[in-house]
Amino acid sequence: RSRDQDHPVIILIIKFLFCQFQELYFKNLSKRNKQIMEKNGNNRKLRVCVATCNRADYSKLAPIMFGIKTEPEFFELDVVVLGSHLIDDYGNTYRMIEQDDFDINTRLHTIVRGEDEAAMVESVGLALVKLPDVLNRLKPDIMIVHGDRFDALALATSAALMNIRILHIEGGEVSGTIDDSIRHAITKLAHYHVCCTRSAEQHLISMCEDHDRILLAGCPSYDKLLSAKNKDYMSIIRMWLGDDVKSKDYIVALQHPVTTDIKHSIKMFELTLDALISFNKRTLVLFPNIDAGSKEMVRVMRKKGIEHHPNFRAVKHVPFDQFIQLVAHAGCMIGNSSCGVREVGAFGTPVINLGTRQIGRETGENVLHVRDADTQDKILQALHLQFGKQYPCSKIYGDGNAVPRILKFLKSIDLQEPLQKKFCFPPVKENISQDIDHILETLSALAVDLGGTNLRVAIVSMKGEIVKKYTQFNPKTYEERINLILQMCVEAAAEAVKLNCRILGVGISTGGRVNPREGIVLHSTKLIQEWNSVDLRTPLSDTLHLPVWVDNDGNCAALAERKFGQGKGLENFVTLITGTGIGGGIIHQHELIHGSSFCAAELGHLVVSLDGPDCSCGSHGCIEAYASGMALQREAKKLHDEDLLLVEGMSVPKDEAVGALHLIQAAKLGNAKAQSILRTAGTALGLGVVNILHTMNPSLVILSGVLASHYIHIVKDVIRQQALSSVQDVDVVVSDLVDPALLGAASMVLDYTTRRIY
């Protein structure tokens, strides 16, 4: 059968195997639970304290509380209510806990009003003062804490200091605000972790948490979301938005302050309301949470008359069961609530996520991010793009079976195990930080130069000194070349330790067109074969665990002059490399010019004659076709074949190829034909420099490479004869750098460490 026919069969086999594995896992877990129950005492129930602070965390904790309540033979539930649940301005949401038929054991008024940063700190302090009496009275075996609120931090701190085990729900996630710091702080205090996504699980492991105490369960609220089948959703929509509103023809808005940038949060909320007014759709606006800045956001709502506007319904609280139906059938949800990027994905409802509050969250394709929501027009455009769409339902955060997993996880907790947490730190090498040689080590870069003939790697210090250099012939195939680069770099990095050099990164200089942003060689010269569309950054970075920069060899020569050579301190200059080929680099306003397609400064391919010799690029009459080492070698071979190259005092061994240096030697010894060829080559280069002067008007031109000193005088003569008088005073000099390609590659690394922008 075809592969397409096999695909469903393979999926069925995988599902079958997974079900078998899951059944076996839970059988073993049940067996362990019985053993633990016997160990803890046959009649001993696990006393679980669930502490809820606000309407958002209750939506996640309620399914767990219902699950605990259905198994009274295993669990004893205590409910503690604190935070904004008990404040009238935020809807007195403790009532929904009572409506769900839970007995509230303790109510703690812990919020210090003020809605600013100081009030948040004072609220944490007040909770810390009140919680010890409650925990001493309840004596729970385990406390369940959710999320990343400041109230939750007070709960976790109190429980940890009073030797009460903590189960943290939704640890390991990343959002993008101060909530991250609070969430991770609670993670370090908690003994057990229930996470919602695979990424969150990996984050917890990276934070050195014990893998055996982490449960990947999914989000508890998804158990309710994915089973929500309220056919009478229209009555809920009419109750909250009016009788004339249709499904998919309204918006739900929920925006909270970002405590690290309150002023911007308020401005963004103002722009959001302006955009919603202009969009002219019925909108349900929920009041923000109790974080610092919420009072100012409410003032903005009242200033704009939102509570009395015919298109808006402003409410403090909507019961979660009804809220589910409202977002499930909305045309769009807008704001920065985690509900938008997490729960709403279960229904495929379009979401517009504003600002940075949820910037790190995993999201489905239903979420459109407007991270820099700094104009009303930008938000309005997002509304036009998203409103009324229907996206595939996302199950990133859960599959509807979180609560059964959490209950089994709770039953598996052995109260006889030591309470002290153990962190799973990765192995660490012996600390040598007190060694004087380590303290005085030389900050250095690893520089790589990929030439047509040789492959060179060097350790280069911050001052531009080449500490050690390694040279090998450049292999002809991609595989051999990349393996040799990795081998040489690994050896050089190991040697750097012995030489007391601290390698900060790797810089690579290579021929051809390079995308320096991605570290990819797009197209190479004919001198380096099998070197197109090559990602150099990834293999080197993965092998050496260092940052890697890549650029064209001409650009690297310009960078070398800017940092170590005659271009140091100059705002505008041009470098021309005269070697096997002709390359260059342009520094303009102190920065390297790459061009729109990374093709700037291909100076060797400036055309100086319409009927000149063929060039390797496929054109005719380029500077490279006249003045490069390859061009001079071509002319030297012609003379040698005609017995016109050698003069008295010259000889070429039979096993040695004729090259550019033989031509230069013949010219020095008086060979008129060799002198004519060099003069023509220098004139072509000089005309190219004239074109550069007329186009770029730099303050300096630097000739670099092995042929530079042989061309300098001819180039200056051409400038005097051909250039406009306004540019004839521009100085043309020969570079005094020995290895500009290596030094330029190193400068990409060293400039970064000194905070230059590259």
Protein architecture, described:
The structure is a single chain. The protein has 758 residues and is α/β, with parallel strands linked by helices. The chain has 4 domains: 43-219, Rossmann fold (3-Layer(aba) Sandwich); 228-386, Rossmann fold (3-Layer(aba) Sandwich); 441-565 and 747-757, ATPase, nucleotide binding domain (Nucleotidyltransferase, domain 5), CATH 3.30.420.40; 566-736, 2-Layer Sandwich (Nucleotidyltransferase, domain 5). It is 42% helix and 18% strand. The chain is built from 25 helices and 26 strands. A 7-stranded parallel β-sheet has the order 3-2-1-4-5-6-7, sandwiched between helices. A hairpin with a 2-residue loop joins strand 23 and strand 24. Helix 4 runs parallel beside helix 5, helix 10 packs parallel to helix 11 and helix 17 runs parallel beside helix 18. It is elongated, with a radius of gyration of 36 Å. Mean pLDDT is 89; it is low at 1-6. This is Bifunctional UDP-N-acetylglucosamine 2-epimerase/N-acetylmannosamine kinase. Its EC number is 2.7.1.60, 3.2.1.183. It catalyses: UDP-N-acetyl-alpha-D-glucosamine + H2O = aldehydo-N-acetyl-D-mannosamine + UDP + H(+); an N-acyl-D-mannosamine + ATP = an N-acyl-D-mannosamine 6-phosphate + ADP + H(+).
